[in-house]
Amino acid sequence: MTDSLTYLTTEQRNERTIHMDQMTTVEMLTVMNDEDHKAAEAVKKVLPAITKAVDHITEALKSGGRLFYVGAGTSGRLGVLDASECPPTFMVDPSLVQAVMAGGGGAFTEAKENSEDNEKQGREDLKARELTKQDVVVGITASGRTPYPIGALAYAGKMGAFTISLSCNDHSEISKKAACPIEVIVGPEVLTGSTRLKSATAHKMVLNMLSTAVMVKLGKVYENLMVDVHANNYKLRERAKSILMEAAGTSYEEAEEALQKAQHQVKPAIVMLKKKVSFQAAGRLLDAHGGKLRDAVEAET
């Protein structure tokens, strides 16, 4: 690994913004918007690698494994964002999808940039989570050369865990440590080297895909509805009622009654409404079909 960063695409100057400091506001925003479109196109090009990652993560979680996102700085924060949304959106245990960030939790709101240079710490932080070969580790680094996630991914590989890398440069260092490298080439940033921009946008898109597609495959979604949403406040209870109305074709009042009987759990409430069964019977049906709602509601009774 060379000490210079100038060879990295993410560190090169964007010719379209050489005169950014002389642009009008609308000119500046227009070029930023144009460049942001490139993030989605770059993600589209790596869909085969993302597919491989989703399928491996799904099988690992089905077998009792966990998913770890490891990163530093912006990359670490993206991992925290995605991991923290999984429990309320899909009602999974917080331990199922975890973020491991250089500098610890405090680095989410306060920059601790020097922490990213410690490759050994990446290994130690994963070791502290008692990583096993059943787990999956995603190392996130726009440059592809950040020591912290590289150390974590190298350790994960030695432990037999499935390894995925997420970077924004061709033939990146972290890709060499990954069984499934995902290189999203978005090109130079509008603000030279500021990978919180296009690079982070592209990586957020990929993480959205990983967690959402995996949870769909695990049966956490029915049609396109969040049937495992954790309805623990007013907004989410109202959303749960809307989901029931859509899924079961019922009225607001019937949805509200079913949700109460189902102890604010959407899945059994849908089974109750569609199959005309009790809460207990709905639970047995779901258990018999591995928690997959479609299989439960389509089963012969």
Brief overview:
This protein is of the alpha/beta class and 301 residues long.
Structural overview:
This protein has 301 residues and is of the alpha/beta class. The chain folds into two domains: 9-218, 3-Layer(aba) Sandwich (Rossmann fold); 222-298, Helicase, Ruva Protein, domain 3, CATH 1.10.8. The protein has helices spanning 25-45, 47-62, 73-90, 119-128, 147-159, 198-217, 234-248, 252-261, 266-275, 279-288, 293-298; strands at 67-71, 97-101, 136-140, 162-167, 180-183. Strand 3 (136-140), helix 5 (147-159) and strand 4 (162-167) form a beta-alpha-beta unit. The chain is globular. The model has no long low-confidence stretch (mean pLDDT 93).
Quote the average pLDDT: 93
Shape: globular
Provide the spatial order of strands within the biggest beta sheet: 2-1-3-4-5
CATH superfamily of the largest domain: Glucose-6-phosphate isomerase like protein, domain 1
